[in-house]
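Just curious: can you write a single protein's sequence together with how it folds?
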Amino acid sequence: MLRDDWWWPWWVSTLIDLAIVAVAVAVFLVTRRRALRIIAAAVVLAGLVAAIMAPIVMTDDSDGRMNRMEPDNTAMTTP
């Protein structure tokens, strides 16, 4: 799963998502072009969903911390 390959905690991902949301909100408020406002609104919505979902999908333990990554020991074989 993607969460097994992620190397930072969920809150870092949430902060990145919220920074993108802030930029999209600024674009939404500044521009008068309808197409840009629609795109900015979609980015705001997607960013908020990603920020809300990060703690849910990026935690494995009941204490909310991610497990330490360990190297994959399976050998890659080609047919």
